[in-house]
Design brief:
Blueprint: H1 3-8, H2 12-18, E1 23-28, H3 34-47, E2 54-57, H4 66-79, E3 84-88, H5 95-107, E4 112-115, H6 138-148, E5 152-157, H7 168-181, E6 185-190, H8 194-206, E7 213-217, H9 223-233, H10 239-245, H11 252-272, E8 277-281, H12 287-298
Parallel strand pairs: 1-2, 1-8, 2-3, 3-4, 4-5, 5-6, 6-7, 7-8
This protein binds flavin-adenine dinucleotide.
C-alpha cells in the first residue's frame, strides 16, 4: 500500500469498537453453488441498509472453501462500502500457502482477517492434526499476518472456554497471548448465557488486556440444528433455554418467535453490560437478524 494511503487510512473496525455506538457485524459462509451464492448476495444487499461495521466470510471446514471464501471476500472489498473480514485457518495448508492468501487479501484491498486455527476436516471434535509444513496454533497466524503487514487482525474467543482447553483460565491466557502477538479484536463462539461472556471479559481484563471482545450471536430458529451446532463447537445449550422450546417444538412459527425473543434479550443484556458490539451469525439469511436488529434499534441500543 502506498505510504500516503497508509498514513490516511483509519481502521473503521477499530474506530467503531472504540466508540460509544455498538459495532454491528454479520457473518456469512461461502455457498456451495451458484444458487447459494445468489442468495448470499441478496442477503448482503438486504442487510446493507443496517450499515454494519463489517461483514465476515468463514473459511470452510478443512480449508475446503478456500477459493470461494477468498473470491467472495475480495468481491465485497471491491463492490461494497462495508469492510469485509476474511476468516483464515491453518487447516490443510502449508505456511507458504497461508502466506499467499494473506498477500492476496492485501492486494485485493481486504484489510482485516480473522486468524483461526480452524476446525479439522473430520469435524470440530476430531483431533487436531497440523499440516506437515503448516502451523499448530492460531497465534502463529497472528504473527504471520502481522509480518505480512497491511492487515488488522481478529481472533476467536470462547465464553465457555475452548473445548480442548484444560480450563477457562488457560483459555484466557491463550486469548491474551494472541492480543499481545498483535490481535486487535476478538469475536466469540456462540453462547446463550450473558454471564459466560462477561466472565470471559473479566478474566481477560484481570490479565491487564483491553482487547475488544465482540459477542457472537446465533439466534435459535431451529432447535435441533442449533443443538447440533452447539454440541459440535462445545457450547452448552442451557436447560432453561431448551425448556422454553419444548412445549412449542412442533410449531415452527412459535419456535422462530421465541428464538428471536431470546436472542434479542441476550443482545440487550450484552449491550447493557458494556459489550462493544454484536456479531450475528446469519447462516446467509437476513430476516431473523433484521428483526433482532430492528427491535434493538427501537430500544435505542444500536
Ligand atoms: C468467531 C469465530 C469464527 C470462526 N470461524 C471459523 C471458520 O471460518 N472456519 C473454521 O474452520 N473454523 C472457524 N471457527 C472455529 C475455530 O477455528 C475452532 O473453534 C478451533 O477449534 C479453534 O480455533 P482458534 O483460532 O481459537 O485456535 P487456537 O488459538 O490455536 O486454539 C486452539 C486450542 O489450542 C489451545 N492453544 C492455543 N495456543 C496454544 C499454545 N501456544 N499452547 C498450547 N495450547 C494452545 C487453545 O487453548 C485451544 O484449546 C471460528 C470460531 C469463532 C469463535
Amino acid at each position: 500500500m502506498p505510504a500516503t494511503d497508509a498514513a490516511e487510512y483509519r481502521d473503521p473496525i477499530a474506530e467503531a469498537l472504540a466508540s460509544d455506538r455498538p459495532a454491528v457485524s454479520f457473518e456469512f459462509f461461502p455457498p456451495k453453488d451458484d444458487e447459494g451464492e445468489e442468495q448470499l448476495w441478496r442477503t448482503i444487499a438486504d442487510l446493507a441498509p443496517l450499515e454494519p461495521t463489517f461483514v465476515s466470510v468463514t473459511y470452510g471446514a478443512g480449508g475446503s472453501s478456500r477459493d470461494r471464501t477468498v473470491r467472495i471476500t475480495e468481491r465485497i472489498a471491491r463492490e461494497s462500502t462495508t469492510p469485509p473480514v476474511g476468516h483464515l485457518t491453518l487447516v490443510g495448508q502449508s505456511r507458504a500457502e497461508i502466506e499467499l492468501v494473506l498477500k492476496q487479501y492485501v492486494a485485493a484491498g481486504v484489510r482485516h482477517v480473522l486468524a483461526l486455527r480452524g476446525d479439522p476436516a473430520d469435524g470440530p471434535r476430531a483431533p487436531w492434526e497440523p499440516h506437515p509444513d503448516g502451523m499448530d496454533h492460531a497465534i502463529e497466524l497472528v504473527e504471520l499476518a502481522r509480518e505480512t503487514g497491511g492487515l488488522s487482525i481478529g481472533v476467536a474467543a470462547f465464553p465457555e472456554g475452548h473445548p480442548d482447553a484444560p480450563d477457562r483460565d488457560t483459555d484466557a491466557d491463550v486469548l491474551v497471548a494472541k492480543a499481545r502477538a498483535g490481535a486487535e479484536f476478538a469475536i466469540t463462539q456462540m453462547f446463550f448465557r450473558a454471564r459466560d461472556y462477561f466472565e470471559l471479559v473479566e478474566r481477560v481484563r484481570a490479565r491487564d488486556c483491553e482487547l475488544p471482545i465482540v459477542p457472537g450471536i446465533m439466534p435459535i430458529l431451529n432447535v435441533a440444528q442449533i443443538a447440533r451446532m452447539a454440541e459440535l463447537c462445545g457450547a452448552d445449550l442451557p436447560r432453561e433455554v431448551v425448556e422454553r422450546f419444548e412445549p412449542i417444538a412442533e410449531d415452527r412459527a412459535a419456535v422462530r418467535a421465541t428464538g428471536i425473543e431470546l436472542a434479542t434479550q441476550l443482545c440487550r443484556d450484552l449491550l447493557d453490560g458494556g459489550a462493544p458490539g454484536l456479531h450475528f451469525m446469519t447462516l446467509n439469511r437476513s430476516p431473523a437478524t433484521r428483526e433482532i436488529f430492528e427491535r434493538l434499534r427501537a430500544d435505542g441500543l444500536v
